[in-house]
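Appendix B. Raw example, untouched.
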Amino acid sequence: MTALFLQAFIYLVAAVIAVPIAKKLGLGSVLGYLIAGVVIGPIIGLVGEETTTIQHFAEFGVVMMLFLVGLELEPKMLWAMRHKLIGLGGLQVGGTTVAVAGIAYWFGQPWTISLTIGLIFALSSTAIVLQTFNEKGLTKTEGGKNAFSVLLFQDIAVIPMLAFIPLLALPELIEAAQSATSHAADHHEELSLVAGLPGWAYGLVITASIAVVVVGGHFLSRPLFRFVASSGLREIFTATALMLVIGIAALMSLVGLSPALGTFLAGVVLANSEFRHELESNIEPFKGLLLGLFFITVGAGIQFSVLFDEFFVIMSLTFGVMILKAAVLFILALIFRIKDSNRWLFTLSLAQAGEFGFVLLSFSLQNHVIPFEIAQTLSLVVALSMFFTPGLFILFDKVILPRFEESSNNKEADDIDEKGTVIIAGVGRFGQIVNRLLLANGFPTVALDFETGQIDNLRQIGTKAFYGDATRPDLLHTAGIEHAKAMIVAIDDRERSIELVEYVHHTYPDVTIIARAFDRGHGYELKQAGADVVESETMYSALEIGGHALKAVGLHPFLIEQQKLIYRKVELKKFDMLYSAWQGGSEGERYDNNYRKLFIQAEKHLIAEMKKDRADNHAHSERGWTPPPKGYADEFGEE
């Protein structure tokens, strides 16, 4: 027991030290975990033989991760992404398998071993890629979405791979295994429900197991969760979530399928459940810790003795596999028209082997498909390719992405052949609404944005917009800034928006500048730069939501409109008062005690205004106090 505590302490200390340092250096948590494993394993030697055993336990983190991925995927979503799932994912797995197998066969390996190697290296690391996408905010990018489609297909493809690999068993390896086991007692026999079954019976058992997961997850899980939730004990719900994941993983293992794929399927089935978010919150901490442990064991499991004995061979194989996979992915990116930096993100993010490679290698050894010596070399290649993957993301962040951003900024602006009464800088979700409102009322606009994707999307729906950087004086001149009545500043860059306001205010003082602010501080900076009108992007939507909430708790709609109007008036006065306090402070001390006191006073004033009885002192501007329209009582009922 003492040894177990010491080992756990070593792993945790390594993670606690290495991961924060790696994060601060911009290397990502995955590389931090891998480095921690290398340090406590091959370098210092604090951990050793138990690493493989712990790795089997830590692989359960991958199982949990795929369960959570499944929870995020509704069946309708899977159907909607079927083209990329099957087309892009299928071509990647098929193309990589054929390419790797062909090269292995050319180097003299039997076709069965070559095909198995191809299947192993066709898979990428779901754990590393998704973890890194989440940390770097790349999940919603075009490259991230396409990479996710491929990873999803790979995870699903593991099922037929596991069914197919035993058919490739080598007779000589089977004989060697039988002779070895004939004079050694089997002290540890793996539990299995399908051992010795004929092929047709094996197929029936697998089908029945999948049916149990799907049907049970759909019909039996909800009553179970309701029963557990009625107890009001959070720890019991956590135990139920773990019981579900562990039970499905055990069932899949008993029938010879991948536990990760079984839990992924269960997650998809439960994606529409009302308990989905509770399941996620309970499983997430275990998943994160076990995934970290898995990456540490990958680093600790790198056998430097084998690596140094065949250093050039193993490194050549590692880089060769990564380059070959990247080439296949790049060709697919061209075929499926993945553009610009997203093409490189898609290519580099999936160029490694994955954690399922270890699963397939182990499975291939158990089924006598690959000799131990080859398996040992291949496991090093898989581990090293995963180890180098964070470096590919750093290459993308530091080298590739800046070049595309620079080329995008240096791209020739469109020829602006129109003049606008209003010029709109930035046509994202905010600028588009302003643009549509003005056009619908017959006022010509010139909409500018330097995001080519945004411009293309607008043109596809018939809205005219021009590519160009609105902060360039020559472009503003071409757009007719001298004769414009107003300038809308809605670009998604804090510093550039302030610079633009300042330039227009000083150069074209007759142009009314209306600016969108991200937050209160940004609003002050825009006001200081010379904006005539500053509006928070969330002000009115938040007021509307608040109004709906007040209606839901029983306030009369007339009173709600009055309170919203009061809030708006008080907020405008508060903005001017707090702006003066902010402006009077020195740099770095603008939110001092005086500012905070004024803010607290303004909040008290708001509450006092809200509580006033205005029935005898209503103003003509307060539209909420005009007579109700016809049919009002029919709609809302008598209050």
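End of appendix B.
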